[in-house]
Amino acid sequence: MITTPYVDRATKKVILTVAKKLKDGSGVVAADLYISDIQKLTEQVKIGKKGYAALLDKDRNYIVHPTAESGSKATESIIDLIYQVEVGHFPYELNGESKEMTFASNELTGWKIVGVMFSSEVDDAASKILHATLFVLLGALLAGAVVIYFVTKAIMKPIRELK
Asked: What highest taxon heads this organism's lineage (predicted)?
């Protein structure tokens, strides 16, 4: 069993509890996980410049998200899509910004692991590669034209001398 995030009375910190009944039924083993620790790990994940990682539980509550509070319900319509399949990738628009979302499900916990990247960052990176490629292509065409000119001139010189 994994609880949704809640505020621990003793520490006043947001935690979630992972618990498992012992095989012989004599008790339970449980561990509390601080959401702040999970948040720190998630913040270390870099997806482009502005992209981010997020975690949602099986009940569509945010565990970790850069702008949503832990334990709050994910109400965005885009969230419906990630609960329809186990793994996926799709583009979407939110608040006027185009984004790319990739996600996977954890079988054991039912959590959704989500990565979001802004489409503008993908476009910017592709644009830089395109410009570099076009520059190299233009340089190669110019170099080829110069080589063709001199080779043609060298071939034509003896032919002109025969006249």
From this structure: Bacteria
